[in-house]
Protein 1
Amino acid sequence: MKMSNSIFSKIIMDIKNECAANVTLSSKDATRFFKVLEGSYGAGDEFLGITVPNLRKIAKTYKNVDLEVIEELLQSKYNEERLLGLIILVHQYQQGNHNCQEERFQFYLNNLNRINNWNLVDSSAHHILGHYLWDKDRSVLSKLATSDMLWERRIAIVATWYFIRKSDLDWTFKISSILLHDRHDLIHKAVGWMLREAGKKDEGQLISFLSRYSKQMPKTMLRYAMERLSAEQKPTIISKL
């Protein structure tokens, strides 16, 4: 049953008041790891100044809110309120039954345009998309990897982190190969990161991938991917550049 407008408005107001009461960072500190100036990837994103631990505390209080409340949070101009909505969504997904998980998976896909900064992607994609697609058709990831939207491409590769944790590396290498020529630094970093994680599970597969594609990989992507390789292994790959 859909909640009344008065109850909905009260919950939203309570959450926003709770967020305001937990502001502890200056604007400079809050945006330290984000590029928000005009022309950059996060242009227009605004920050209240709330730490992630404080957001997680708030999320515990509101962990059972309806999806319409989460949707309202995702519409916020403030990054932290969108992140709060995703933290709650991930919690509900992880605690829910199959029907609950399917509903939240679809909700996630329907709101991809609001998952629009790297912290939002990295805190949710593997928990929801990765988990849900584990035993299903994963072709949606290929579609996202070829999207014109930066964040959808990042979602595609970060979602495979769940597969990596289950020692299933094929889709990490598949999506990485699709994104080899991506022009954005945030994709270079994400792909390199996931390749590095895959290498923790199977170093041989990582080395094989790097030996094949290192000449095509942006330097940042390659550097991230090779971080855990030994001093003896790295020159072998670099020499092929």
Note: The radius of gyration is 19 Å.
Protein 2
Amino acid sequence: MFKEKVRFVFKALITALLFSLQSIVYGGWAISVMAIPLLPYLIGIINEYMRGHNPNLERDVYLMLLAREFIVGRLIAIVGFAIFLVAAFQFLRERKEARLIRTGLYSVVRHPQYLGIIIITIGLNVMVFTLFGNQLKPICLWLVQVAGYIGLAKYEERHLGKKFSEQFRNYKNAVPFMFPIKCPSKIPETLFTLLIAFIITLIFLIFPFQLLRIL
């Protein structure tokens, strides 16, 4: 039981650390709007809170939640957040039964919580690219995030394979890994997942995101 809790906390911390690499739209200090990774932004928020003020917070909330030009990215992020919440609720509800979860979103992909987070990051990147155009640094950081989530998922599956043996192997053969696309039998699952991530990266690189500002 203690090992289960340690593993759960470890995965939660690594997931949060990976998500903190995500670039977001930021109101800036005195230099108009910019993009900044989430971690330094949160550090700045805490620092300003300790000093008793944050003159940019209201503008940041408006940009993230209400600014019209970010509506496409915002909708994508909301869909991802909804998937993450439903998967997290199902996981927390059924993990007490100490059984392999195979229903609901877990019948679509084996790791719907990571799928939800990835969709959130896609939405946030679309918001950044809508304002600044296609930028290589956020794209590279996104690939690091996805690779990290793949690593965490594989770490979790090693435990599940030991705990549920044949039951998990059958589940693994029937349900896609992280994206709802069945992996061809001749391609390693991890490689196929990375291939999908690279295809999304290519879209990030060539899509004319500035056009979304005039919707």
Note: The chain has one domain: 2-214.
Protein 3
Amino acid sequence: MQAPVFVLNANVKRETGRKAQLGNVFAAKAVADIIRTCLGPRAMLKMVLDAMGGIVLTNDGNAILREIDVSHPAAKSMIELSRAQDENVGDGTTSVIILAGEVLHMAEPWIEKGIHPRLIIGGYVKALEDALAVMERFSSKVDLNNREELLKIVQNSIGTKFLAKWAPSLAGLALDAVQTVFSEKDGQKEIDIINMQE
């Protein structure tokens, strides 16, 4: 049997083992650090130069990451994570990237000590189980027929956005829109999500 032949760009480096793991952590942290200041009530806007040469001011993590051109596989995975969050949920793109970067950052000392990644992942799985148990203990049921209670929830979500000063007005509009597309089939509650493209 002949050895496999690798056809690579002459400038490409191939890394394995702990060095590759730490490189992945560093790349993920770098992506998270780009949009870290876009989160929270004191979030800052980023000035982004798009592919057409236009300037965009935004604090939307997904919009910022869409304009970044990276070649590192871990950094690409982080950007893909942001896209998946935006497509499936429509919100939380900045939060998911910062959380993923922080999770990897917390794994870095364990990798440096030579702990196998499977053990680190096992620890994260246990932490997830504990977090879900705590959330279950502190969660409360929401009456979907109580408009005032639903408006408070919507206003809390809108309060993190740039348009927080219009939260009371927008909360009513958002709630009406969701209730318009809400349906219940065979005891299962569903909301139809339709993306409209021009």
Note: The mean pLDDT is 80.
